Amino acid sequence: MNPVRLMLVDDQELVRTGFAMVLDSCEDLAVVAQAGDGEAALAELGRTAVDVVLMDVRMPRLDGIAATRRVVAEHPGVRVLVLTTFDLDESVTEAIAAGASGFLLKDVSPQDLIEAVRTVHRGDSVVDPVSTRRLLRATRPLLSAPEPAAAEPSAEATAALAGLTPREQEVLLLVGNGRSNAEIQADLVVSEATVKTHIGHLLAKTQCRDRVQLVALAFRAGLVS
């Protein structure tokens, strides 16, 4: 199996060196590129094949949030894992809004960093526990508000669902309701491998980058409120 190709983007060379030592110690991971700011990262992506970008937030020229937004728009197959020293509410929400598949603080343990990279590459999302609490605080007003009716399906979302089988639409509905693979397996009485196959087909057919985008599609399609 080819290793997951990684790019490290941070304006501190010492930080990049430390992360590279940790990640390159794994046979299934390989740091293939590094950059000191967002502009350099985008230029490097134009000439180097990368699967996952580990992106700092605060950098000169082009910061990590703006760079993440451009990476997601210009390189749809690349996933971004944002890492920052600063535990700020706006950093978490802005990174996720920009299209990041994960958000971690830089004091993460080496093993947790490795697992986070693998998780993001699989198409799932990861947010460190402290930032998760901040996200929950930010969304609490929405959670306590009366539940809205499902939105009218958009034409784009309806077209995306047109090529799905009834079973795939059922899986999409469960994903949209926040069900994990294990929970979907129990709901449908199928194997975990079958669930993963359905998720893979959904991602391919709908051209969604990861599970987060599948949830967004379920909302746009009016499957969930």
TrEMBL record:
Q: Which Gene3D superfamilies is this protein grouped with? A: 3.40.50.2300
Q: Does the UniProt entry include the keyword Phosphoprotein?
A: yes
Q: Which CDD domains does this UniProt record tie to the protein? A: LuxR_C_like, REC_NarL-like
Keyword annotations of the record: DNA-binding, Phosphoprotein, Transcription, Transcription regulation
The residue ranges of the Response regulatory domain are 5-121
| Sequence intervals crossing the membrane | none
Q: Which residues form a coiled coil?
A: none
Record's keyword annotation contains Coiled coil: no
Domain HTH luxR-type residue range list:
157-222
Q: Which PROSITE patterns match?
A: HTH_LUXR_2, RESPONSE_REGULATORY
Positions carrying 4-aspartylphosphate: 56
Signal peptide boundaries: none
Note the PANTHER family from the entry. TRANSCRIPTIONAL REGULATORY PROTEIN NARL-RELATED, TWO-COMPONENT RESPONSE REGULATOR
Q: What is this protein called?
A: Response regulator transcription factor
Q: Which organism is it from?
A: Pseudonocardia spirodelae
